[in-house]
């Protein structure tokens, strides 16, 4: 299954702001394997000054060993020049548990070890990290409305955390 979420917001008055976001997600399930690919492009400007310019590409793989337990692999490439993140590449492996998964939705959690390679303001670093991820979705009204929450927390020792979270309600228009 694939989905594209597109959004734009324009505001004028005391200040002029523009925001453009594109999120494309694809999930492929074959037998006991699940592949997930996501691309996020996000740009914002206020009064002619760029305030956000992000590129985020994520890939995740789950290989189920039983009905509930799975091994996982993940890869992420992230850029945000405005925050001096020239690039961040994260790759890792772990294990997870699917609490439930059916035509009404799913809930799963995973924990794993990662390697983070990043260039911050022309300084390159490589660090080990731990990653915790949670993925939840629930369909309502014959899959026309979906409630979702996804987050991942990447804990880099001596550096802090990188938290990504997405929560919302989606409504199919066709």
What does this structure look like?
The chain is mainly β. The chain is built from no helices and 10 strands. The chain has strands at 2-11, 17-30, 33-46, 49-64, 69-80, 85-102, 105-120, 123-140, 145-156, 160-171. A hairpin with a 2-residue loop joins strand 7 and strand 8. It is flat, with a radius of gyration of 18 Å. The protein starts with a strand and ends with a strand. The mean pLDDT is 92.
Itemize the secondary structure elements and their pairings.
Blueprint (H helix, E strand, L loop, with lengths): L1 E10 L5 E14 L2 E14 L2 E16 L4 E12 L4 E18 L2 E16 L2 E18 L4 E12 L3 E12 L3
Antiparallel strand pairs: 1-2, 2-3, 3-4, 4-5, 5-6, 6-7, 7-8, 8-9, 9-10
Tags for this model:
10 strands; mainly beta; 174 residues; ten-stranded antiparallel sheet
């Amino acid at each position: 299954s694939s989905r594209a979420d597109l959004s734009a917001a324009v505001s004028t008055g005391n200040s002029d702001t523009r925001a453009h976001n594109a999120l494309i997600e694809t999930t492929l399930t074959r037998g006991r394997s699940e592949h997930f690919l996501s691309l996020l492009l996000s740009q914002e400007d206020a009064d002619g000054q760029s305030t956000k310019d992000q590129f985020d590409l994520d890939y995740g793989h789950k290989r189920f060993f039983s009905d509930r337990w799975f091994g996982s692999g993940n890869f992420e490439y992230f850029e945000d020049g405005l925050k001096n993140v020239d690039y961040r590449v994260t790759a890792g492996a772990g294990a997870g548990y699917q609490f439930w998964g059916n035509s009404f939705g799913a809930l799963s959690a995973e924990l794993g070890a990662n390697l983070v390679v990043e260039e911050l303001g022309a300084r390159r670093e490589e660090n080990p990290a731990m990653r915790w991820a949670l993925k939840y979705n629930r369909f309502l009204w014959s899959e026309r409305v979906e409630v979702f929450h996804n987050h991942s927390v990447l804990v880099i020792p001596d550096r802090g955390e990188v938290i990504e979270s997405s929560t919302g309600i989606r409504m199919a228009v066709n």
